[in-house]
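Lecture notes, part 5. Sequence design as translation. It can be helpful to think of inverse folding as translation between two languages: the language of shapes and the language of residues. The source text, in C-alpha cells, appears below.
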C-alpha cells in the first residue's frame, strides 16, 4: 500500500506496535525446554489483548498464530510440541492485522550458548537489512535493495536464500512490489514516497536452495545448514525510511 492519510499512519503505527511487542514477548520467553506451542500461546495472548489477529492465519489458514522456525528451517515453521534446546537458532516471524492494517517483522535469536556460525548468521541478516535500508529511497529502483543486501551478505561470507523475498505490505501480507534479496536486472519497479514494504534478508550458511517440508509450510535449507532471518516493515520517503516495527 501507499500511505495516503493520517489515518493510514495511525493504523500502521498501531499494528506495528503490536507486532513489535509480540516479538519482544516471544524473545523474552525463549529458553531451553519451552515448546514452540507455548511460545505461540504467548503471542496469541498479546494479540488478543490488543484486539489484533494473526494475519497468516486469516489470509492463508496458517495453523498457528506466529511462525517459529528452528535451525535449518528458514521460514514458515509451525508451532508445536518441539522444545527449544540450548544452541538452537530460532527465527521468530510475526505478522499482525489490526483494524484493516498489517505489519510484518522477524528476528533471529540464538538460545545460547550456540555455535559461532549461528551468531555470525544472526549478525549478517541484521547487517544485510541495514544495507538494504540505506538505499531504500523514493525514486530508487527496488532492485537496488537486493543489490545492497546481497553485497553485504557475501561480505560476511554467506549467501542469501533464493526465491524468498521481502514485499509490499499494509493492507494484506503480500502486496506489490516484490523486494528480492538479490539483484534482479529485470525488475523495473521504483520506490515511491509513502510506499509500505518489508526488507527481509534470509541467509544460509550453506545451500541457497529452499525446500518445502512435508507439512506443506516449513521452508528449509536444501542441505540442512543453519539459516537466519531479519525483517521490518518500513515506509519509503525521499529521506531515511520510517521503520515502523523498530523500537
Amino acid at each position: 500500500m501507499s500511505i495516503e492519510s493520517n489515518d493510514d499512519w495511525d493504523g500502521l503505527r498501531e499494528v506495528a506496535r503490536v507486532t513489535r511487542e509480540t516479538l519482544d514477548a516471544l524473545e523474552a520467553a525463549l529458553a531451553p525446554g519451552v515448546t514452540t506451542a507455548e511460545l505461540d500461546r504467548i503471542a496469541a495472548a498479546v494479540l488478543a489483548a490488543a484486539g489484533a489477529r494473526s494475519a497468516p492465519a486469516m489470509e492463508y489458514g496458517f495453523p498457528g498464530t506466529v511462525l517459529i522456525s528452528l535451525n535449518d528451517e528458514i521460514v514458515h515453521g509451525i508451532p508445536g510440541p518441539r522444545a527449544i534446546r540450548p544452541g538452537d537458532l530460532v527465527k521468530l516471524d510475526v505478522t499482525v492485522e489490526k483494524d484493516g492494517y498489517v505489519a510484518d517483522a522477524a528476528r533471529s535469536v540464538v538460545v545460547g550458548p550456540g555455535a559461532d556460525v549461528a551468531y555470525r548468521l544472526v549478525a549478517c541478516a541484521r547487517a544485510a537489512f541495514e544495507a538494504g535500508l540505506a538505499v531504500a529511497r523514493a525514486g530508487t529502483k527496488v532492485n537496488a535493495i537486493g543489490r545492497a543486501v546481497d553485497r553485504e551478505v557475501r561480505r560476511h561470507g554467506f549467501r542469501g536464500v533464493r526465491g524468498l523475498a521481502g514485499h509490499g505490505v499494509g493492507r494484506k501480507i503480500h502486496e506489490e512490489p516484490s523486494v528480492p534479496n538479490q539483484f534482479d536486472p529485470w525488475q523495473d519497479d521504483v520506490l515511491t514516497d509513502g510506499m509500505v514494504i518489508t526488507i527481509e534478508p534470509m541467509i544460509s550458511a550453506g545451500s541457497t536452495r529452499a525446500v518445502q517440508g512435508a507439512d506443506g509450510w516449513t521452508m528449509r535449507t536444501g542441505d540442512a545448514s543453519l539459516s537466519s532471518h531479519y525483517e521490518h516493515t518500513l515506509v519509503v520517503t525521499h529521506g531515511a525510511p520510517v521503520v515502523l516495527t523498530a523500537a
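The translated text above is only one of many valid answers, since several sequences can fold into similar shapes. The chain is about 30% helix and 25% strand.
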